[in-house]
Amino acid sequence: MAVLLRGSRCLVGKWHNHVNAVQVSIRSMASKTQVGFIGLGNMGNPMAKNLMKHGYPVIASDVFPESCKELQELGAQILDNPADVADKADRIITMLPSSPNVIDVYTGPNGILKKVKKGSLLIDSSTIDPAVSKEMAVAAEKMGAVFMDAPVSGGVGAATSGKLTFMVGGPEAEFNATKELLTCMGANVVYCGQVGTGQAAKICNNMLLAIGMIGTAETMNLGIRLGLDPKLLAKILNMSSGRCWSSDTYNPVPGVMEGVPSANNYQGGFGTTLMAKDLGLAQNTATNTKTPVPLGSLAHQIYRMMCARGYASKDFSAVFQFLRDEEGQ
């Protein structure tokens, strides 16, 4: 009898383990419900692709229909506007160029909030004014939805390889659900605090990035004028205290590195217009908080000048070429 009981317990234990495994499997499959994605530009397109690679069915929309073709061929469902996406999906990611775009996509006539479902999770990965993120969070809350700001760092390369860094602001209770999706597209997902803090972190990062890129471009240009080979100078910088991301990963001098915009006539990458926009956000927040940012202010002026002189569509590392042109070379 004891042997039979032990055998029964063993069978029951195995059955429970099997049931638990099935339940976990079902939860895993259930979590792969369709995800809405709005904004299929240079960043949004590879991000949406990575969601699909991880098994998430994607429902997408973009103001430019041609931006949707590639994703549609991969199996994504394409809808006419953000409201239609919100009608079909209760988890939506937006990746848009600016604050006005975000306001329109969320609260416009065909915006997400027109048809959003209660309990929906709305994740905005655009880089915008923190105040706008807070406004969108309030508007979403009125409709029973949750808004998280989750801007990114890493550029098109990291978006393609799924190695972005996400800076997340919003209710902490929603962070795990947000992270589940963002880890499909990024290597680092960092919780920063309440709504708007993700944007604050991103604005600070991009101000430093712009200052660093200008400094690298000036340094490389000076070294070249002094007769140094640019590859040698970059090598020395990158083994010395002047090393930074702009010198060792994204060098602005043509011929120094492969696979970066400077090797492709500054095409692709992170546009000068967008950098000028982000520096404008930094200036606004610095003014509002009475924070002195003299180098940030100069960087903003330089990138605005670049936009006015024909560099608007080029990668922001084209500041090197801008400086060369300024000196008549």
TrEMBL record:
UniProt GO molecular function: 3-hydroxyisobutyrate dehydrogenase activity; NAD binding; NADP binding
Family matches, as PROSITE patterns: 3_HYDROXYISOBUT_DH
Domain of life: Eukaryota
Localisation per UniProt entry: Mitochondrion
Group of enzyme by EC: oxidoreductase
This protein's record includes keyword Mitochondrion: yes
One GO CC term on file: mitochondrion
UniProt cross-references to Pfam families, sorted A to Z: NAD_binding_11 (PF14833), NAD_binding_2 (PF03446)
First-listed, main subcellular location of the protein, grouped into a coarse class: mitochondrion
Domain (3-hydroxyisobutyrate dehydrogenase-like NAD-binding): residue spans on this chain: 196-322
NCBIfam families, sorted: HIBADH
Family statement drawn from the similarity comment of this UniProt entry: Belongs to the HIBADH-related family. 3-hydroxyisobutyrate dehydrogenase subfamily.
Designated name of the protein: 3-hydroxyisobutyrate dehydrogenase
Organism: Triplophysa tibetana
